[in-house]
Amino acid sequence: MVDRLANSEANTRRISIVENCFGAAGQPLTIPGRVLIGEGVLTKLCRKKPKARQFFLFNDILVYGNIVIQKKKYNKQHIIPLENVTIDSIQDEGDLRNGWLIKTPTKSFAVYAATATEKSEWMNHINKCVSDLLSKSGKTPSNEHAAVWVPDSEATVCMRCQKAKFTPVNRRHHCRKCGFVVCGPCSEKRFLLPSQSSKPVRICDFCYDLLSTGEMTACQSTRSDSYSQSPKSPLNDVSDDDDDEDSSD
């Protein structure tokens, strides 16, 4: 089915429409063999709060962006290679329902569909595309992924020292290794995480100690599912668009 659509006029036209919606600021999306599988609006759990984002699933990449005018204009384009993606279902909690984690070595985050059926369709199609890509390339599924950032609203005090209260002056920061919300004094160190950045990034003292001694597995296991283990339930750039501003923090 996908191979048959790859060179079809209808597929080329659909991809061209997506390119036009992102405008000159977006990356070209039309390449030989690429097929637009589907599209839709998903709620992305951002640093500050959940926000609606337009997602496009292709047979080799996942693209999403901010909605400026529905079906007409999007910005802040993000492109995720599917061969690096793994997904995990999230249990429903309160108003956040029908969700799953999208995990990659560079960025991981949670998204939510409007219905359980929609969630199932998205997850099935993503898994099928990833499986087909890996089968063709002979590569193995990625076993490394960036931590899912705990939303700011989930932490009123530092998740490491459990003492520092967050205020407009005492700002929240995120450890790039475990995803915890931490205070400045608990995250003064930097460490090079090549999959996330070419420069050393902010990490908490706990992760720094583990990384420095080579105990990386232990560090990863502390937050292997960072969102599902957040305090109420016991994400091409490291930062996201306007959701995760202050990428250095």
TrEMBL record:
Looking up InterPro entries in the UniProt record yields: PH-like_dom_sf (IPR011993), PH_domain (IPR001849), PH_domain-containing_F (IPR051765), PH_Phafin (IPR037871), PLEKHF2_FYVE (IPR047966), Znf_FYVE (IPR000306), Znf_FYVE-rel (IPR017455), Znf_FYVE_PHD (IPR011011)
Its domain of life? Eukaryota
Give the bilayer topology.
Peripheral membrane protein
Cite the residue spans of the region called Disordered: 221-249
Entry's Gene Ontology BP terms: endosome organization; endosome to lysosome transport; protein transport
Q: Where is the composition biased (Acidic residues)?
A: 238-249
Keywords in alphabetical order, please.
Answer: Endoplasmic reticulum, Endosome, Membrane, Metal-binding, Protein transport, Transport, Zinc, Zinc-finger
The record, for SUPFAM superfamilies, names:
FYVE/PHD zinc finger, PH domain-like
The principal localisation class reads membrane
GO CC terms, sorted:
early endosome membrane; endoplasmic reticulum; transport vesicle
Q: Where in the cell is it found?
A: Early endosome membrane; Endoplasmic reticulum
Q: Which residues form the FYVE-type domain?
A: 152-212
All copies of domain PH, residue ranges: 35-131
**Biased composition range(s): Polar residues:** 221-233
Short name of any one Pfam family annotated for the protein:
PH
| GO MF annotation: an example | zinc ion binding
Protein purpose: May play a role in early endosome fusion upstream of RAB5, hence regulating receptor trafficking and fluid-phase transport. Enhances cellular sensitivity to TNF-induced apoptosis.
Protein name, per record: Pleckstrin homology domain-containing family F member 2
Species the sequence originates in? Ficedula albicollis
The gene name on file is PLEKHF2
